[in-house]
What does this fold into?
Amino acid sequence: MFGRIDHIGVAVEDLDESIRLYRESFAMAEQHRETVEAFNVEAVLLEVGEGHVELLQPLSPEGAVGRFLEQHGPGIHHVAYQTDDIDGALRAVREAGLRLIDEEPRRGIRNSRVAFLHPKSTGGVLTELVEPAH
Ligand code: CO
It folds into this structure.
């Protein structure tokens, strides 16, 4: 169902400070930066092999990442699996009885199609499915 891990999502309070940390400590280059209004975040993708770390800074305290930061502080927010067929993957996990946050895919960073599964049905791990733009 999944090709590989696409990215790990990390909630941060200060995007520029976090970019500097990853660049200076791990030599990870910034590959892409985008404001994703639908998710109320400014997001940066850092390159690591074929995968990414996705740094997420909330645009305002409302929204999922803002609430996460308030409750937990900065840290790992979600794991994202890559699929070539997000509609089929969503159907499969729905049939497997998992609870979905997104019943239909939404537009994510870099024109990908994404959908989140509820952490209550995935062992406490907020899980994102990603179908990259072709
Ligand atoms: Co993500």
Notes: The chain has a mean pLDDT of 96. The radius of gyration is 14 Å. The pocket of cobalt (II) ion is lined by residues 7, 9, 54, 78, 80, 128 (CB under 6 Å).
